[in-house]
Amino acid sequence: MLNLLRYPLVLLLAAIAPLRAEPVFYKDVLPILQQHCQSCHRQGEIGPMPLLTWEQARPWAKAIRQSVSLRKMPPWFADPHFGQFANDPSLTPGEIATIQNWVDSGARAGLKTDAPSPVNWPEAGVLANPTLVTGMTQPFPIPAKATIPYQAFVLPATFDTDTWATAVEIRPSDRSVVHHAVLYVREPGATWLDKVPVTADILAVYTPGA
Questions:
Q1: Calpha distance 175→153 (Å, rounded)
Q2: Alpha-helical segments (H) within the chain
Q3: Would you state the pLDDT for residue 5?
Q4: Largest Cα–Cα distance of the chain, in whole Å?
Q5: Could you give the CA distance from residue 100 to residue 65 in angstroms, rounded to a whole number?
Q6: Exposed, middle or buried, 106 (CB in 10 Å: 0-12/13-18/19+)?
Q7: How far apart are CA 143 and CA 151, in angstroms?
Q8: What pLDDT is attached to residue 14?
Q9: 141: cis peptide before it, omega within 30°?
Q10: Are the CB atoms for 36 and 89 separated by under 8 Å?
Q11: Contact 29, 114 (CB under 8 A)
Q12: How far apart are CA 149 and CA 179, in angstroms?
């Protein structure tokens, strides 16, 4: 025998169930880009396009969805099975789903009034007030067509006492001709230069698009 009393309850539950709002750029996606992407994707930085506004991000919506879905972006190459890192920029599954749903629902802008406050990025790089700025004593010329072996340069960075480095940034003067760079710690009195021993400590790596 069909029990008709249960149908009003089902209809009532369906009526009061909240509707899931489709993600929009300024309210839902921009905070993710600020936290994970804009350090590189802004004017003058290594990202191929800025992602500060909807107008800048909208033409790249499908490419952004693909890159985050495949976890190609943000780039992070540490094996997750061997510890967690404070500077890991990887997106959470929820953040990836938000971007996917934003693109699939039309990549709408939403209201600019819902946007978070802009990030006050440094004029160059990501370190606002570095304690030490050092670099090559003279530029290394790179011809337009050539095969150049690895080059090693000693940077002037003498410390009187043992010093902890809390953040390091490598900034090539011309990114268009720099494939990658590795910064090693060179102990006082060391004489190596052309070949880096396996015991040397890597301090930072610059490898765009790897």
A1: 17
A2: 6-16, 30-36, 54-57, 61-69, 93-104
A3: 45
A4: 93
A5: 6
A6: exposed
A7: 14
A8: 44
A9: no
A10: yes
A11: no
A12: 12
With a cut of 70, list the residues of the chain below it in pLDDT.
1-20, 191-200, 208-210
69-87: per-residue pLDDT in tens? 999 999 888 887 888 888 8
What is the C-alpha separation between 53 and 92, in angstroms, rounded?
22
Number of alpha carbons in the 13 Å side-chain half-sphere of residue 86: 2
Yes or no: say if 156 and 136 are a contact pair by the CB < 8 Å rule. no
Cα separation, 91 vs 1, in Å, equals 52
Query: Helix, strand, coil shares of the chain as percentages rounded to 5?
Result: 25, 5, 70
Please name the residues in contact with 200: beta carbons below 8 A apart, sequence gap of 6 or more.
184, 185, 186, 192
Q: What is the pLDDT of residue 195?
A: 55
Query: Using the 8-state DSSP alphabet, how is residue 59 labeled?
Result: G
Query: What pLDDT score does 200 carry?
Result: 63
Q: What is the pLDDT of residue 60?
A: 98
Token pair for 19: 């509707």
- How many residues are given for the chain? 210
Name the 3-class secondary structure at 181. Answer: strand
